[in-house]
């Protein structure tokens, strides 16, 4: 049974502020990773330990600042354990470093969950807090804590997630399709784009053994640009390079589409694909800088298909369209950076089978 903790005040913040907060969490994690790597080699280095403590403390403070109080207890209890290291009441170790990474990974998962759904599952949160408190109490009592065992315990846990009912899926799909087609028809540069992307995604999905559930993938294709409706037209249609603040606003469109699908019910996989379709396999994408296998394969399919038809179609910022071979070259050039190498190989086969023959 899920115990939901509302994060309503957090998700109602200005989208630019939310983007700044998420970026600050990523920046802090980079500092934390660097500190942990140094401490693995020099566990007694006081300056690095203090820097690690400050970085974790900054994440806690920023969570509190944006009303994400549901996550604060987890980070606070971890901070208390790190403070015992600073007081030299606990020796830093590689096992503790692994534990810190796992706890922060769980905290970031909660942050993503709050951003996507407006709430978090309180049951694993409460269990994590209790576990951290128990470890803290043992250390304070002079007892030895086996952080390796705790880490293994956490990694081995599996939660039963209640799935919402599928509801009226066919009518949902029709609603999404109607909206996508209406969005496509707003400009001649996008006309027919959703159906083109859907067809290519179907070919890719079929070639990978239908990794993504077909209806979920169809919904994700129709809704992947839904959030653009909530971005200022001046930003969406701007031909010049976007300013940093404009980029952050543009990046918020993935949240709008994902949340819509979540609230509709029965479209969790589609919501995940929409949220992740601008992630890049090298970790430089958005909104969470996921990399490699962290990204849903369906989201990777949409990314390839979206790029393929974007560069083979006329656009408002160019009056020409690239050739099919130019588009294939662009996608292959970005293998391992933007696109998944294995999926690009599948894409190349699909182009030969379904698009090259059609043009010959």
Automatic annotation (TrEMBL):
GO terms for biological process: phosphorelay signal transduction system. One of its GO terms (molecular function) is phosphoric diester hydrolase activity. Keywords: Phosphoprotein, Two-component regulatory system. Residues 168-360 form the HD-GYP domain. The keyword Iron does not apply. Pfam families: HD_5 (PF13487), Hpt (PF01627). The keyword Phosphoprotein applies. InterPro entries: HD/PDEase_dom, HD_GYP_dom, HPT_dom_sf, Sig_transdc_His_kin_Hpt_dom. Residues 10-114 form the HPt domain. SMART domains: HPT (SM00073). The modification Phosphohistidine is found at residue 57. This is Hpt domain-containing protein. The lineage of its organism: Bacteria, Pseudomonadati, Pseudomonadota, Gammaproteobacteria, Pseudomonadales.
């Amino acid at each position: 049974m899920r115990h939901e903790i509302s994060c309503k005040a957090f998700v109602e913040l200005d989208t630019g502020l939310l983007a700044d907060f998420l970026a600050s969490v990523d920046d802090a994690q980079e500092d934390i990773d660097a500190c942990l790597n140094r401490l693995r080699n020099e566990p007694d280095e006081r300056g690095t330990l203090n820097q690690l403590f400050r970085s974790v403390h900054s994440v806690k403070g920023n969570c509190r600042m944006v009303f994400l109080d549901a996550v604060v207890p987890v980070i606070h209890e971890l901070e208390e354990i790190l403070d015992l290291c600073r007081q030299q009441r606990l020796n830093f170790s590689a096992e503790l470093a692994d534990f810190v990474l796992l706890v922060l990974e769980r905290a970031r998962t909660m942050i993503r969950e709050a951003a996507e759904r407006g709430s978090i599952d309180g049951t694993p949160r409460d269990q994590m807090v209790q576990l951290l408190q128990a470890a803290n109490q043992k250390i304070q009592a002079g007892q030895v804590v086996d952080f390796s065992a705790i880490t293994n315990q956490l990694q081995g846990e599996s939660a039963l997630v209640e799935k919402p009912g599928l509801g009226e899926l066919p009518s949902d799909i029709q609603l999404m399709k109607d909206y996508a087609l209406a969005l496509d028809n707003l400009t001649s540069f996008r006309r027919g784009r959703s159906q083109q992307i859907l067809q290519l995604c179907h070919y890719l999905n079929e070639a990978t053994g239908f990794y993504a559930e077909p209806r979920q993938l169809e919904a994700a294709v129709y809704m992947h640009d839904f959030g653009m409706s909530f971005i200022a037209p001046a930003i969406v249609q701007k031909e010049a390079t976007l300013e940093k603040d404009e980029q952050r606003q543009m990046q918020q469109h993935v949240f709008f589409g994902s949340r819509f699908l979540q609230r509709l019910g029965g479209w969790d996989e589609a919501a995940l694909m929409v949220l992740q379709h601008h992630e890049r396999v090298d970790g430089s994408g958005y909104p969470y800088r996921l990399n490699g296998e962290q990204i849903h394969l369906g989201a990777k399919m949409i990314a390839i298909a979206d790029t393929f038809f974007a560069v083979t179609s006329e656009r408002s910022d160019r009056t020409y369209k690239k050739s099919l071979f130019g588009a294939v070259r662009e996608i292959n050039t970005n293998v391992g950076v933007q696109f998944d190498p294995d999926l690009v190989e599948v894409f190349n086969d699909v182009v030969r089978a379904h698009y090259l023959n059609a043009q010959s």
